[in-house]
Amino acid sequence: MGISVTKLLIVLAIIIVIFGTKRLKNVGADLGGAIKSFRSSLREEEDKDAAKTDEDKPIDGEVTSKKGDNG
């Protein structure tokens, strides 16, 4: 009871007839732009997180005190 290739082609043909190729092209371009924007925002967040963790690392030979250490 799976979906065969012929059923997929029939559904695709119906979608093309209903919406037209120009509208489908626009939808594809909009979807691609949204995905590209989402990926770039994820990269920016990863870069911010990486920079934040780099700031927390001590420099070689640097002595750091822990929070709550009174001495």
Please indicate the percent range of residues in DSSP E strands (runs of 2 or more): under 5%
Query: What's the total count of β strands?
Result: 0
Tally of helical segments: 2
Helix content: over 70%
Q: Biggest sheet, in brief? A: none
**End-to-end gap:** 73 Å
Task: Give helix and strand order, one letter per element, not per position.
Answer: HH
Category by helix and strand content: mainly alpha
Unreliable parts: none
Shape: elongated
Report the average pLDDT across residues: 82
Our Rg estimate from Cα atoms comes to: 26 Å
Structure description:
The protein has 71 residues and is mainly α. Helices cover 72% and strands 0% of the residues. It has helices at 5-19, 21-56. The mean pLDDT is 82.
How would you describe this structure in keywords?
single chain, 71 residues, mainly alpha, 0% strand, 2 helices, elongated, 72% helix
Concise synopsis of the structure shown:
By secondary structure, the protein is mostly helical.
Give a topology summary.
Elements: H1 5-19, H2 21-56
